[in-house]
Recover the amino acids of this structure.
């Protein structure tokens, strides 16, 4: 059996020392307390489920390695294998439960991101509609439908004023139109400009 390696490091739960090969009694004890610390941190929402899952997996590997190697000349008791099988089964059940919780958490975060993007777009549009041509007070960046920022994430020119929209290159105008509205097709440049202006809340 290969030596047991430590779980990935994290900032909130200190890892135990590197275990011996085979693990010592101290390594088994340290693995136990590491799981307890990871469990407390997980319940307090300080670490994600993966950290607690890794701790459980590490403890099982330490115990399994310790039981497999045992002490020199010792004979494994008859109850060892059934107990080890039961422990692995319980661990897998815990991991499956943690994975389900993690999946549900990601689903909630995805829904939150969608709502946040919608709010950001609405606020930017409302503001832009109130500042006219943007010369006195510049326009806010209106996120694309996927929530990405045109300037920070797509390296497109900032549309701070009405003049900026009219000075877009053909390629940049096409990129804005495509992400705000859809394929350009055979639409004329003035139609594309009008579409982008409407998409960012500019009053025509």
């Amino acid at each position: 059996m290969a030596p047991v390696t430590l779980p990935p490091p994290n900032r909130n739960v200190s890892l135990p020392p590197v275990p011996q090969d085979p693990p010592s009694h101290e390594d088994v004890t340290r693995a136990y307390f590491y799981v307890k610390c990871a469990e407390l941190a997980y319940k307090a929402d300080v670490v994600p489920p993966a950290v607690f899952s890794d701790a459980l997996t590490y403890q099982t590997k330490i115990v399994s390695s310790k039981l497999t190697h045992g002490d020199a000349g010792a004979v494994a008791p008859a109850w060892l294998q059934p107990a080890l099988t039961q422990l692995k089964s319980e661990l897998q059940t815990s991991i499956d439960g943690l994975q389900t919780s993690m999946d549900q958490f990601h689903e909630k975060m995805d829904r939150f991101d969608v709502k946040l993007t919608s709010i950001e777009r609405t606020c930017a549009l409302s503001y832009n509609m109130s500042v006219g041509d943007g010369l006195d007070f510049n326009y806010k960046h209106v996120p694309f439908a996927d929530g990405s920022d045109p300037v920070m994430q797509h390296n497109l020119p900032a549309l701070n004023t009405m003049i900026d929209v009219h000075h877009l290159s053909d390629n940049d105008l096409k990129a804005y139109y495509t992400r705000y509205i859809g394929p350009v097709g055979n639409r004329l440049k003035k139609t594309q400009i009008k579409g982008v202006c409407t998409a960012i809340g500019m009053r025509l």
